[in-house]
């Protein structure tokens, strides 16, 4: 399994698992747990969740999936922005820890930014949780370049370990200014890594693209595997596709073996051009 190094030297798999929409249907619980456990067996040991997903339901699914194998898994969870104040963040973290049935969250993210809480106060609260051993490291989600520059200008803001953003073939906006900094700093680990959510898009729209189908045929794979392989080409990006069925999990795992050619990448750039101007990052 390809790995990505965090700023503190920890190496984690470049291909993980997402849990959005999990924990919302009790009848699907067993199948969702089985899917995550299979992913762990296949080396996808980064599991991303959030207190927002199923209002804590997804964290409970994760808890059952990692039971008896906590030491194999890198757990990521996210806090609502309205819980990111110095008084509410510790409470939200405790609730997530209780649902996850673990002692510490490996990476705890601010889900998105709202202006009613000062960023410096959130960072201070994160740092206190880290000192207390409730979290190992912290990060953010849906931050654009200006947000990241502001974050890194405040005290302890440079301790941010990751920025989780939307990134796939049809949403390449981070390539305009955010991702180039991550690429340039790869040797110094200066910038936080990127975690790409929705790496194969939403629904079947992207995966029905004719160019993707052509490239998938060249490699004898599926279009979703090609879309994932494209995201995984980046050395400091972790992809966290969600899969609630075991077949889908196995398909995702095989994407790590695909090596896209120059011809493939040229075709994809022509079909899905990189950004030429700055636009607001979408939040999904």
State the helix count: 10
Return Rg in Å: 18 Å
Any idea how many domains? Answer: 1
Classification by helices and strands: alpha/beta
Gap from first CA to last CA: 28 Å
Low-pLDDT runs of 5+ residues are none
Q: What is the share of helical residues?
A: 25-40%
CATH homologous superfamily descriptor: NADP-dependent oxidoreductase domain
The assigned CATH architecture is: Alpha-Beta Barrel
Q: Overall 3D geometry?
A: globular
Q: Please list the strands of the largest sheet in the order they lie side by side.
A: 3-4-5-6-7-8-9
Strand composition percent = 5-15%
Walkthrough of the structure:
The chain has a single domain (3-203, 230-257), classed as TIM Barrel (Alpha-Beta Barrel). The mean pLDDT is 94. The longest helix is centred in the N-terminal third of the chain and has 13 residues, at 29-41. The strands form 2 sheets. A 7-stranded parallel β-sheet has the order 3-4-5-6-7-8-9. A two-stranded antiparallel sheet has the order 1-2. With 284 residues, the protein is α/β, with parallel strands linked by helices. The protein contains 10 helices and 9 strands.
């Amino acid at each position: 399994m390809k790995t990505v190094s965090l700023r503190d030297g920890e190496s984690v798999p470049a291909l993980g698992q997402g849990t959005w929409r999990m924990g919302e249907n009790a009848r699907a619980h067993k199948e969702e747990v089985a899917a995550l456990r299979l992913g762990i067996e296949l080396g996808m040991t980064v599991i991303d969740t959030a207190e927002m997903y199923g209002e804590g339901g997804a964290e409970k699914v994760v808890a059952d999936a990692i039971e008896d194998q906590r030491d194999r898994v890198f757990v990521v969870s996210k806090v609502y922005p309205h819980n990111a104040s110095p008084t509410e963040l510790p409470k939200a973290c405790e609730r997530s820890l209780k649902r996850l049935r673990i002692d510490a969250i490996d990476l705890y993210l601010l889900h998105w930014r709202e202006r009613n809480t000062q960023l410096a106060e959130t960072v201070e609260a994160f740092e206190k949780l880290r000192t207390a051993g409730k979290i190992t490291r912290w990060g953010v989600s849906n931050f654009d370049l200006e947000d990241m520059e502001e974050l890194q200008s405040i005290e302890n803001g440079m301790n941010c370990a990751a920025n989780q953003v939307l990134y796939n073939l049809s949403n390449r906006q981070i390539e305009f200014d955010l991702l180039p900094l991550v690429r340039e700093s790869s040797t110094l680990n200066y910038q936080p890594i990127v975690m790409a959510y929705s790496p194969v898009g939403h629904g079947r729209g992207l995966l029905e693209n004719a160019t993707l189908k052509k490239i998938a045929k060249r490699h004898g794979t599926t279009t979703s595997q090609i879309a994932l392989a494209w995201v995984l080409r980046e050395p400091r990006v972790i992809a966290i596709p969600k899969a609630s069925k075991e077949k889908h999990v196995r398909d995702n795992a095989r994407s790590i073996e695909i090596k896209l050619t120059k011809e493939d990448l040229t075709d994809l750039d022509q079909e899905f051009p990189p950004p030429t101007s700055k636009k607001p990052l979408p939040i999904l």
